[in-house]
Amino acid sequence: MTHTLSSDSWQYRALNAINPGLDYLSKGLIALTEAGHPVVAGSADLQYSNGLNRFAEAYPDRYVQFGISEQNMVSAAAGLATCGHMPFVATFASFLGLLCCEQIRMDVAYTRLPVRLIGHHTGISLGFYGTSHHATEDISTTRAIAGLTVVSPADGPQLTAAIKASADWPEPIYFRIGRGRDPQVYADDTPFVFGRAIVHSQGSDLNIIACGITLHAALEAAASLNAEGYSVGVIDMPTIKPLDREAVLAAAGRASVVLTVEEHNVLGGLGSAVAEVLAEAGTGTRLVRHGIYDEYSLIAPPTALYQHYQLDGAGIRAVALRQLDNTKREAK
Question: Where is the Transketolase-like pyrimidine-binding domain positioned along the sequence (predicted)?
């Protein structure tokens, strides 16, 4: 295999030099390679923005620079999988989960090939790059594709753990990850199990089910509310498909309100997946879906966008408190 120089911007090269969060993807791939797995990695001209340059430096013969040809990259990854390789290919989530939908469906998922698709800079994390680069529909797109596992790690260590765990996972996987600046929630070497939620706490008033970069903010919100005397729990749902149904039903059985939080359109994402479980089970628990409310996101710095859409700790706290107040009023 050959590997060529990327035209990835100097800004991302500089960012990679100071942002250790970008190392976690390569850490996982290097660990798999050192364990003897036939890993091949590829990127669509973005190895400095996703940190794959670290893997390319360690294993130049196992890295392919595809250039700005995302659809070709996905199809090529399917071809590599048929030859016995374990391909991991990465690009912006807006391109991978949306532009490459047909290639993911027909070349990867339909054929049940063990391709690992890494959609990075998810949600609104690309800020000023605008709507064309924001990925607020990729969960709904990918979870509707038969045979495709959908995973949204909360931070770098969980991403590395999920990548290591993927060595024995037979289905293709879509990993939905942030921009490498996500606050760390988990310690390194924290184990990961596909299809299993991580219960941080269970509340009797309200339980928050979060995924991806919203988990840290959800934990902040819950801590603030619990300090005020409420009973608010937090469940991390890193695997959106297959969803941990038992964890959802347990959360609903303990509290009168379940609040889902995601950096995604509320239609078709984590909230919709949880709604399906609750509706099928016939629970009487109220569900509130919080995220992007079926609109094209604004253009601004990521931090400002998280505040605007109430996806930071203070915003999630405000949304949860509103529901707690509503429940109190209805009980009178």
Answer: 19-184
Superfamily of chain region 12-177: Thiamin diphosphate (ThDP)-binding fold, Pyr/PP domains (3.40.50.970)
- What's CA 324's distance to the chain center, in Å? 28
CATH number at 198-331: 3.40.50.920
Listed by start position, the domains of the chain span 12-177, 198-331
Catalytic residue among 34, 70, 102, 280: 70
**CB 213, CB 179: distance < 8 Å:** no
Is 280 annotated as catalytic?
no
Sign of CA dihedral 112, 156, 197, 263: negative
Check if 12-177 and 198-331 are the same fold: yes
H-run or E-run covering 31: helix 23-34
CB atoms under 10 Å from CB of 13, counted, come to: 14
- Structure token pair of residue 178: 């942030």
First to last CA, the chain: 69
pTM of the model: 0.93
Gap between the Cα atoms of 159 and 175, Å rounded: 8
- Is-contact 249 277, C-beta < 8 A? yes
Could you report the per-residue pLDDT of 173-206, keeping only the tens digit for each? 999 999 888 899 999 989 999 999 999 999 999 9
Edge-to-edge strands, sheet with 63-65: 63-65, 39-43, 86-92, 116-120, 173-176, 149-151, 239-241
Burial 142-164 (b: 16+ CB within 10 A, else e): bbebeebbbbbbbbbbbbbbbbb
Mean pLDDT of 166-170: 95
Helices 245-254 and 270-281: angle between axes, nearest 10 degrees: 70
Tell me the longest C-alpha to C-alpha distance in the chain. 70
